[in-house]
Amino acid sequence: MSRKQAKHNNERKNPKGKVSTGSLVRAIAKRTGVTQVDTDKVIKSLIAQIQMEVFDNNNQVSLVNLGKFWRKEVKPNNNEIIKRVNSSKKMKPKYALTFRTSANIRHELANRVKKDSDSII
Asked: What ranges does the record give for the region Disordered, renumbered to this chain (predicted)?
């Protein structure tokens, strides 16, 4: 397979605007000089640690210049409400991982959008 075909296949798997974990690992490894295997381990352990802190320990995780992760209870849908009414056992609440970007990222994004809109005019 030629490079052009491989690039085309990769673009179909990951449409523009979406970054896969593998490409993120390669970029970070290249930038830091750490091996891709070690970078992948760090990213996976960071995600696992965030999940453990949020779901198991019910803690809020704040990463400076990135944002906050926390646990939020998901409201039941109509089918779940009917099941709860008809069931004698108490159903466990469901939770979702919630993320809010930091103010720095929001300001940076707003500035980039403004620059892009200024260049169009």
From this structure: 1-24
Report helix angle 36-51 to 21-32, nearest 10.
120
How far apart CA 23 and CA 46 sit, in angstroms, is: 17
Nearest to 69 by CA among 92, 52, 88, 91: 52
Full-prediction pTM beyond 0.70? no
Spatial distance between the Cα atoms of 77 and 75, rounded to a whole number of angstroms: 7
Helix (H) or strand (E) holding 101: strand 94-101
Please state the domain extents for the chain.
Answer: 1-59, 61-121
DSSP 55: I
Question: Phi first, then psi: what are they for 76, rounded to 5°?
Answer: -70, 145
* Token output for 102: 């930091």
